[in-house]
Amino acid sequence: MDDLIADFVAECREMLEALGGEIVAWEANPDDRARLDSIFRFVHTVKGNCGFFDFPRLEALSHAAEDALADCRTGRRAPDATLVSAVLAIIDRIGEMIAAIDAGEELPEGDDSSLIDALAPGAEGAAAQAATPAAMEAGLKGTSTPRTIRLSVELLDRVMSGVSDMVLARNELARRLREAPGEVEVDGAFERLSGIIAEMRDAITRTRMQRIENLFVALPRMVRDLSAELGKQVLVDIDGGDVELDREMIEMIRDPLTHIIRNAVDHGIELPAERMKSGKREIGLLSVSARQSGNQILIEIADDGKGIEASKLVDKAVANGVIERDAAQKMTRGEQLALIFEAGLSTAQSVTAISGRGVGMDVVRSNVERIGGVVEVDSTPGKGTRMILRVPLTLTIIPALTVSIGTQHFAIPRSAIEEIVRANGSSVTLEKIGGAGVATIRGRRVPEVALADILGLPSSMEDNERTLVVLRPAGGDVYALAVDRIHDHEELVVKPAAPAVMATGLYAGTTLADDGSPILLFDPAGLAQVGGVRLEAVERGGRGVESAVPVNSNDVPVLLFRGLDGARRALRLGVVDRIEEVVASEAIRPSAGQLRVQLGEAILPLAGVENVDEFEGKVRVFRLNDGEHEIGYAFREVIDLMNIDREVIPAEIPGAISGVTLIDGEPAELIDAHWLFAEHLGAIVRPQTQLVCRLPEGDAWMQNMLRPIVEAAGYLVIGENDELSADVTIVSQGKDIEPDEGGRILRLATDPDAADGEDSVYRYDRAGLLMALKTSSAGKR
Amino acid sequence: MKELLLIVSIAGSRVALPAAAVESVVELESLIPVPRAPNHLAGLSALRSRVLTVIDCQRSLELGSTNLNDGKLHEAAVVEMDGHHYALTVDAVEDVVEALSDPAPIRAAMGDGWERVSKGMVETEEGPLLLVDIVALVAGPGAEARAA
């Protein structure tokens, strides 16, 4: 309640401040309609809030003023000087009371009837004088300085676009500096400037952020009112209110979200009796959750109602002429459900006041798409419906990959890129099937389109020299886009393009490259559409093919490549998940005891590097996968995909190389993937036979000083009363304790002379301690 | 005060643009074409940190086309519409004059392209000039067909 009052006071204060000038202007010109309106709004707001808070005096005052002003607004009464003074007197009195409320005082006793009477037509202008001292008093009291200020979004936008321009200028400067390497001091200063700009951009982006809670807080009430009206019982479960989103974005998704929830309550969740009949709980459950995933926010609205029947949707769509009957038969279930977003479709039996007029879901989709988002639907008849809104985190800055066709550069949003492969690479084949391009990437068939063809641009490059960018438009299935060249990853400040450009359906916006030239940013879904790729159907076929790839074959397919040190090596294809390219200086760094590489959102241990200085510029990395864990392996280039048919000469000592064999007439080292994983994941993956050490829980020295050492030696530390049986139990010298079955006791002595070096060790004899722990573990294994 | 007009020549004809709508006159250097965009949309260019959408007025009027990638500088008038900046390519920018009359309908038959962008004839000290509708110029020849 106190919060609400504080809000009320803040709001009133703000309006009063803004009104200051209006009042004077109104006084000078009582006929000014705009002034009249804003003063009316103020008393109206005060009146509305007072009723809620139980401030009867405020309410009476504002109500009286509102009535008088309403008469003026409808023209029943002409505002004259007397009325103006009377209204002003009331506003002053309201200000005074609000000051009192703010200061936490009781509202002063007093009689406002003289002020209210003064509003009546023909009343004397006596009230005006009464107001003056009150106003002064209110001013004198003063208030504590506010901790926050309100800014107009417009101003923030200006700062934001200033910062965006600054980023562009910095990029340009960076390019100039790269071209003409200057002094180290200049570079240093530039680095610092660059860092500051990045920080500033983060900060200014955050000022535009708002917790999504602001959007969610109204939902329970809305659902309650709705369900009461419809005679349903609905429980709302809200999660993830602390996710932050661009404030503009919050406004943009308010309507779509409201609409989806209305639909869920109205059409999704059944009446209690129906629910009982179908064996559900009487109370329907509606869960709304938000979470961040990469640079997207996912808002999920799920109900456990009756779900959507895809067949009904299809019938309706056919009846309304949205689709053809034969087209409908070819549709997948996902496509059928997506029909709900077509204009003029609603499966509701009857039109209700809440929703179901057949307008709505198409508006929802277009609203969400306008801000670069996607809405998806999934539903199981009888079980419920789930809608997912995916919206970008901010409207303006998008990480993107720049590619080119001929001489022209374009950008592709990185969020849509699944992987990048070379068309002539060993794991890729390109085929034309009935004129349509199909790329087979490691056994997976994906539709392939050449960017040059979509755009109608001349390109002299052969199909198999191109690079394939495998794209997954948000919510859709993958396709491969063949581009001439791949350039760079950049953070681009994206601005909407002119309507005529957007109308092509290919582009999501424009941006400026480092050198200041404009670049068009693609809309991956639009590209697919213009390129004639049917997103869902082909992928389904692809999955079938994948499972048909022979798994058990005598020939072992290996990937022949050249390591960073130039050696010819081979790696069994099965463990290679994919190949990625990273900028060494950004993505590779030693941390937590070993070299690690950042690939997308994952940080993996990096193998294959003898010497950190070998890196320059970009490094390619195999992403190896053992089914559970991943590690990276840096290399220089892929030579080919081969089969091992010769004998492998095993290495003499276990290591990264398991042996040597002849591939394609030349020797190649065969990488021991098992060793790589064992070596690089050793610290992450606990051995299966976990050693257990019991430490007294109450002993601070043991817990704080000893425990880290014991854990580093590979032990699981338990307390005195845990049930596990311990391999080692450590106690202080002089305490008696029963050893666990098969375990041993290690006593720690505070006095070096009391230790015998075997079962009792001086507690700061680190080497002795480790030795004792090791002998225990050796005994166990 | 009478409206100020910017006299430019497009496709060899002298016409007037409302000067208030023109933000600046720039020289376009290089253009980035926009594949699949309408024909009269010549491409994109950058002005400081803003992206300009370049409209080839000759193509918009269907009176030929301007070769913008011949390495020469081309003059263009920058206008703003709905938050987007457009550069209208012109043969030359001549002068700013005061309009001496309100636009009056032209009763003689004009060429197709001109008819579409005409806002009427205005009297100036330099004689009568055609006042060009910038919105129609930007929308280009296909706009009516699309709207219909």
Automatic annotation (TrEMBL), chain A:
GO terms, biological process: chemotaxis
Single GO MF descriptor: phosphorelay sensor kinase activity
Catalytically driven reaction(s): ATP + protein L-histidine = ADP + protein N-phospho-L-histidine
InterPro entries recorded: Bact_Chemotaxis_CheA, CheA-like_dim, CheA-like_homodim_sf, CheW-like_dom_sf, CheW-lke_dom, HATPase_C_sf, HATPase_dom, His_kinase_dom
Domain (Histidine kinase) ranges: 191-395
EC code: 2.7.13.3
Domain HPt: 1-101
Enzyme class: transferase
SMART domains (alphabetical): CheW, H-kinase_dim, HATPase_c, HPT
Matches recorded under SUPFAM superfamilies: ATPase domain of HSP90 chaperone/DNA topoisomerase II/histidine kinase (SSF55874), CheW-like (SSF50341), Histidine-containing phosphotransfer domain, HPT domain (SSF47226), Homodimeric domain of signal transducing histidine kinase (SSF47384)
Function as written in the Swiss-Prot or TrEMBL entry: Involved in the transmission of sensory signals from the chemoreceptors to the flagellar motors. CheA is autophosphorylated; it can transfer its phosphate group to either CheB or CheY.
Record protein name field: Chemotaxis protein CheA
Organism ancestry: Bacteria, Pseudomonadati, Pseudomonadota, Alphaproteobacteria, Sphingomonadales
TrEMBL record, chain B:
A GO BP annotation: chemotaxis
InterPro entries: CheW (IPR039315), CheW-like_dom_sf (IPR036061), CheW-lke_dom (IPR002545)
Pfam families assigned to the protein according to its UniProt record, in alphabetical order: CheW (PF01584)
Organism: Sphingomonas cremea
Residues covered by the CheW-like domain: 2-143
GO cellular component labels: cytosol
Name of the protein this chain belongs to: Chemotaxis protein CheW
Superkingdom per UniProt: Bacteria
Coiled-coil annotated spans: none
SMART domains hit by this protein: CheW
Extent of the signal sequence: none
PROSITE patterns: CHEW
